[in-house]
Amino acid sequence: MLYINCPHCGMRSQNEFSYGGDASVKRPEINKEVSDQEWDNFVYNRKSLRGKHLELWQHISGCRQWIKVERDTATHEIFRTFKADEEVA
Amino acid sequence: MQKYSIFNLVKNAFSNHQNWDLAWKDPTPKEEYDVVIIGGGGHGLATAYYLAKEHNITKVAIIEKGWIGGGNVGRNTTIIRSNYMHDENGLFSEFGMDLWRKMSQDLNYNVMFSPRGIINLAHSDAQMNAYARRGNSMRLNGIDAVLLNREQVKEIIPMADFSDNVRFPIFGGLMQPSAGTARHDAVAWGYARQADSMGVDIIQNCEVIGFDVNAGKIKGIRTSRGNIKAKKVGICVAGSTNILAEKLNMTLPIETHLLQACVSEPVKPVLDKVVTFGAGHFYVSQSDKGEMVMGGDLDGYNSYAQRGNLPTLQHVLTEGIAMMPFLSKLKMLRTWGGIMDMSMDGSPIIDKTHIEGLYLNCGWCYGGFKATPASGWTFAHTIAQDRVHELNAGYSLNRFSTGHLIDEKGLGTKTWIS
Ligand SMILES: Cc1cc2nc3c(=O)[nH]c(=O)nc-3n(C[C@H](O)[C@H](O)[C@H](O)COP(=O)(O)OP(=O)(O)OC[C@H]3O[C@@H](n4cnc5c(N)ncnc54)[C@H](O)[C@@H]3O)c2cc1C
Ligand SMILES: [Zn+2]
User: Fold this and answer.
1) How far is the CA of B152 from the centre of ligand 1 (A)?
2) Closest ligand to B97 CA?
3) Which residue of B80, B224, B237, B361 sits with most ligand 1 atoms within 8 Å of its CB, as the best mutation to test the pocket?
4) If 0-12 CB within 10 Å is exposed, 13-18 middle and 19+ buried, where does residue B214 land?
5) Could you state, in order of their start, the residue ranges of all structural domains in chain A?
6) What is this model's ipTM?
7) Neighbours of B376 (CB within 10 A)
8) Contacting residues of A for B318, CB less than 8 Å apart
9) Which of B311, B344, B401 has the CB atom closest to A15's CB atom?
10) Is the model's pLDDT at A61 over the cut of 80?
11) What is the pTM of this model?
12) From the CA of B93, which ligand is nearest?
């Protein structure tokens, strides 16, 4: 069982969350010329890192906020959690 | 190579089976090969075998970081089928079904192919309609499909829950009678033994850690046991694809996720089909030893852990018990997990790359075991001829940019949901 520290609610079990994938993926900016390659990178291409991975989770059975979680994809250790709009240093 | 036969079995009995040849050798890597295949799973081994057998290319090495068969080829639930709606998947898999039927003879190795049939259960009228459509598409491609109503399903699997007050009543199902199972280890070992006998070097405990590329052309690989030159290199590393892609500065439409499976204690024969639950993701078959072999959803978040987490297992088995209540009485014998190369449309990639002489085989998602022979056959063709075969032409890497996705389930890019 993973335990995720929701920045809004505190430590909760993974059963309360649903996964949202790689949080480093950025949608191309609106009102700008966007190349096919940029769309591909946004929609399909993923680094799928082994090790530290910044990812989105939603606290679906709690506060329903989207949050960012920094987790190791090999050991499942969770290092840090952030609010969705928080900058990750 | 010593042939496996009843005659040789009897002959070797006189020496207490102490004098059998080794099934494959343990060579030290040569300086250079015509083709290097990275990954000694089912697909890598099959590719090497068909390179030698179909294309007469035998200066080949398989480079495996662990031991052959230690990856997903030895961790899957062995379901073999071609019950796809889309032409690319249907024709590719049905070509594979033919190779499965001949495999034990072809490899002189009993892979215990058991075409016992698969039933996908339907739990609503809408699902029956969808299955009718898929079944018709299959039959148009020459694949056997039978639409079963509730009574017909009940006759075949009376142990499923047919009571009146269930949440997901069984409306019927789609059956592919020629689908089935095989012994996964035997598939790896059978391909390895034949490839070895034709001159392929199977090099275990040797991890690929980098590539030598010059002027857009592959020159060789770097491994934990030194550099190896190669004219052509094929990547067949399933759940580790992204790790090697990163070393080539490639970002792929693939994510690595964990899939678990489990077996119960062995019981007397009760189930002679593969059955899948249609209102979630659960499937079950019974092994020759009597264990119920079960699996379902991914753990649900990117993972390279090769071992799973209990919430998913509990969720999957809850579906199993909803489908076949008797399963709740069984003790669990073993659970395990494997890391899966989940592609963004649920279909694989067997293609050339932008680097000359470098070929890519990945994106097998839940269904790469059944694809082993067809994948090896078409990948060998792609490498040997430096062009894709019509059977894998649809499995191109650039289909994601051109919009020619093969999204069998219509689920989109959330790979962990599918
Ligand atoms: C629990 C589970 C159940 C499944 N059930 C089914 C099923 O019922 N039916 C079905 O069709 N499919 C199923 N699959 C999927 C199927 O097992 C895989 O898609 C398929 O085995 C992948 O191809 P492979 O055999 O070549 O992979 P693998 O056996 O994983 O081979 C890849 C090899 O590459 C090696 N490797 C990785 N990195 C390196 C490196 N850097 N250098 C050298 N070697 C490296 C690995 O050690 C590994 O041996 C299941 C998978 C799992 C995990
Ligand atoms: Zn919360």
Assistant:
1) 35
2) 1
3) B237
4) exposed
5) 3-27+37-83
6) 0.96
7) 30
8) none
9) B311
10) yes
11) 0.97
12) 1
Q: How many residues does chain B have?
A: 418
pLDDT in tens, B269-281: 999 999 999 999 9
CATH superfamily of A3-27+37-83: Folate-binding superfamily (3.30.2270.10)
Please give the Cα distance from B302 to A21 (Å, whole number): 8
Q: Which helix (H) or strand (E) covers residue A58, if one does?
A: strand A52-58
Q: Quick check: B262 and B292 in contact, CB under 8 A?
A: no
**CA of B240: which chain A residue's CA is closest?**
A50
Residue-wise pLDDT for B12-44, tens only, equals 999 999 999 999 999 999 999 999 999 999 999
What is the tens place of the pLDDT at every residue in B339-378?
999 999 999 999 999 999 999 999 999 999 999 999 999 9
Residue B201 in tokens: 């070097």
Q: Which residues of A touch B401 (CB under 8 A)?
A: 36-37, 40
Check CB contact under 8 Å for B242 and A46. Answer: yes
Measured in Å, residue B68 CA sits from the centre of ligand 1 at 10
Residues B6, B12: Cα–Cα separation, whole Å = 10
C-alpha of residue B255 to centroid of ligand 2, in Å: 26
User: B412 at the A interface (CB within 8 A)?
Assistant: no
Q: Considering only alpha carbons, which residue of chain B is nearest residue A38? A: B401
